[in-house]
Amino acid sequence: MRATTEDFAKVFSVVQEQIARATDPPPATLDKFKSKLATLTYSEIMNLWQQEQSTREEWESQAKPIVELRERVTPEILDLIRQQRLQFLHDGTLFTKYSAKGHRIKDKFWYCRLSANQKVLHYGDCEENAVPSIEDLPHKLAVVEIRSLVTGRECPYMKDTRKARSTASLAFSLILDSEQDPLNFVAPNEKVFDYWTDGINALLGKTMTSKETKNDLEILLSMEVKLRLLNTEGVDIPENPPPIPKELTNFDFCYDFK
What we know:
The chain has helices spanning about 5-20, 30-40, 40-60, 65-90, 165-170, 190-205, 210-230, and strands at about 95-100, 105-115, 120-125, 140, 145-150, 170-175, 185. By secondary structure, the chain is α+β, with helices and mostly antiparallel strands.
């Protein structure tokens, strides 16, 4: 395996760092220098750099300009997450069917998906592993008819405390304005539960509060801030903005354009 020019540059920078760290503070003897140098292996230097980078990023994230940048970017990221959640609802999900009393119905499934205009939920029974189109789903629920979203033990069919905790934690219901029974769901896993509850909250104009949203927001926000700060690499970010110069006492400027 041949080394490239980039490999040589990386090795030189590591060797330079090894020597700098081994001589700070200056060792009393050559043997002590060699001994300290032996502990500063390539992997050790890389670990030290990574730790220092993490510490620097953590400190910079608390700087006022970075905090203000995160606050400015946050609405854009939340809107991106909202669009992804609504697209997830549009693609639809296969749910296991449960009775009105919260009992699982063996080998019975139903599918639910959001219309392209985001105004109607289409749903209906289907076979396992099926992905029916909207046209194949006979039942409809207008989003405007949804009064609220409830989850867990607050769901009408999960009031019984004897229900398994794992099942209750994945349950959510759409409470309707009309006299209709609520539309009840049990998500196949926590991620689908978070995506659907986020999507319903987005449709209702409410805040998305799931764990997935918090994780996605932190990851995407961190990436976006790093991208916007690429041109400032190597520049120390001040804790506070520089002071504004005092106002001039005389604005009678004279320009000679001849």
